[in-house]
Amino acid sequence: MTGEDTGYEAIYDPILSQHRKVHPHYQFRSTGFNTADSTEKDVFPHTDIDQNREHSQGYNIIYPVLGASRLDYFETLEDEICLPEKNAQGYYYYHEFKAQSQMGQGTPEFEKFLADRKIGEIIIDKPCLIDTDIMHRVIITEAPRCAFVTRWNNIPAIDFHSFKDRVESIL
Question: 2-56, pLDDT tens digit by residue?
Fold first, then answer.
């Protein structure tokens, strides 16, 4: 998050060297272990973006390790999203709903807003590839929860199913 080298890339190299065979670029900030120690924690609704890359497209692969989670997808309308803050390198790294800051994360009003826009969900109980250009949220259903995530980015135009076929044939 700070932009400083943490040394984790070298530690994760046994995994990342395999992932680089799929695609050579990944976002450092979003690649690694995601953890939660409580079902009260979640990852707020967002889309992932990489403005500092030639190509904006990206996909995440999630490997559940411990605990359980669900990914909720939401209808994403341009007039309902915003760029909330820049990262340490001066780039935006996600979109969020404007309603989140207007209504407040976790309020009954915001939860109703989300319920009205929910278009699907995925139970993360095996390795899963996701399209992060669609508004999504991680709900922790069993804690503690740990998952390893690689966010491939800077992907030239390729549809989700073709990229998924590539992931499955290589990994």
Answer: 667 788 889 999 999 999 999 999 988 789 999 999 999 888 899 988 777 888 8
Backbone angles phi, psi at 23, to 5 degrees: -160, 135
Residue with tokens 């390790």: 65
Residues pairing with 70 in the sheet: 123, 139
Q: How many CB atoms lie within 10 A of CB 97?
A: 26
Residue 161 CA to residue 166 CA, distance in Å, equals 9
Amino acid making up residue 37: D
Token pair 């399209």: residue: 131
Give me the amino acid identity at 159. D
**Domains in the chain and their CATH numbers?**
8-164 (2.60.120)
